[in-house]
């Protein structure tokens, strides 16, 4: 399998995005707000030791959605994060959200970016013709599906979810995008479990909005 480790930054280096060198993207002036927004969001996360199993420190993103002002901050930060990475001229045509937490913010982000939203769901939950991709979980295989007409050939697609852990479900989502002929721009996650090296499995760059602990942190593994 191709090693993408060196090609998957958690986020762009601002020094390479100042527009001073040919080929570099110019930052929208509003992206200067992003660092302070990230700090506010990071402080809102809650941690639960030994959940869902001993030795795991669970990172809870749900408080972000309980406060309307914080929720708005979160969606705005995601919007700026995507613009910072891809620039105004290469924004996605489609946001593909993974079941289930990708559904919490994927549609709102899509609206802010002027993109469509496509759900990627567990097998058997979508009507009509679908494409399927398998991925491995702790206790066996699982499957994601996407409706066969959800993405048009050549559309630029960004996959979003709350966290990247082992990378299996995100990799399956990327495969589905490519099966339909979409141009997979990459993956945007809120958090990452660095020590599981899930991004190494992905077929495109992966960016995280917030900082995760390097070990023993978990959400629902993806």
UniProtKB/TrEMBL annotation:
Catalytic activity: AMP + diphosphate = 5-phospho-alpha-D-ribose 1-diphosphate + adenine
This protein's pathway: Purine metabolism; AMP biosynthesis via salvage pathway; AMP from adenine: step 1/1
Gene Ontology molecular function, alphabetical: adenine binding; adenine phosphoribosyltransferase activity; AMP binding
Keywords: Cytoplasm, Glycosyltransferase, Purine salvage, Transferase
InterPro entries: Ade_phspho_trans, PRTase-like, PRTase_dom, UPRTase/APRTase
GO cellular component: cytoplasm
Major enzyme class: transferase
A GO biological-process term: purine ribonucleoside salvage
Localization in the cell: Cytoplasm
Domain of life: Eukaryota
Every Phosphoribosyltransferase domain range: 84-211
Region: Disordered, residue numbers: 1-33
Stretches assigned to coiled coil: none
Enzyme Commission designation: 2.4.2.7
PANTHER family in the record: ADENINE PHOSPHORIBOSYLTRANSFERASE (PTHR32315)
Quaternary structure (record): Homodimer.
Entry's family note: Belongs to the purine/pyrimidine phosphoribosyltransferase family.
Task of the protein: Catalyzes a salvage reaction resulting in the formation of AMP, that is energically less costly than de novo synthesis.
The protein's name: adenine phosphoribosyltransferase
Organism name: Endocarpon pusillum (strain Z07020 / HMAS-L-300199) (Lichen-forming fungus)
């Amino acid at each position: 399998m191709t090693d993408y480790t060196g090609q998957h930054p958690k986020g762009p280096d601002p020094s390479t995005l100042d527009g001073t060198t040919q080929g570099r993207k110019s930052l929208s002036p509003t992206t200067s707000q992003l660092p302070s927004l990230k700090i506010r969001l990071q402080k809102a996360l809650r941690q639960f030791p030994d959940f869902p199993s001993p030795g795991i420190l669970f990172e809870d993103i749900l408080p972000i959605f309980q406060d309307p002002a914080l929720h708005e901050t979160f969606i705005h930060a995601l919007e700026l994060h995507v613009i910072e990475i891809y620039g105004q001229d290469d924004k996605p045509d489609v946001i593909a959200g993974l079941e289930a937490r990708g559904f919490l913010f994927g549609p709102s982000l899509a609206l802010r970016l002027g993109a469509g939203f496509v759900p990627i769901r567990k097998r058997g939950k979508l009507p009509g013709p679908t494409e399927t991709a398998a991925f491995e979980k702790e206790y066996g295989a699982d499957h994601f599906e996407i409706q066969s007409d959800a993405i048009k050939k050549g559309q630029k697609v960004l996959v979003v979810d709350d966290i990247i852990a082992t990378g299996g479900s995100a990799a399956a989502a990327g495969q589905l995008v490519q099966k339909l002929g979409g141009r997979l721009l990459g993956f945007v996650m809120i958090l990452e479990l660095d020590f599981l090296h899930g991004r190494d499995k992905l077929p495109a760059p992966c960016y995280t909005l917030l900082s995760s602990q390097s070990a023993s942190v978990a959400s629902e593994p993806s």
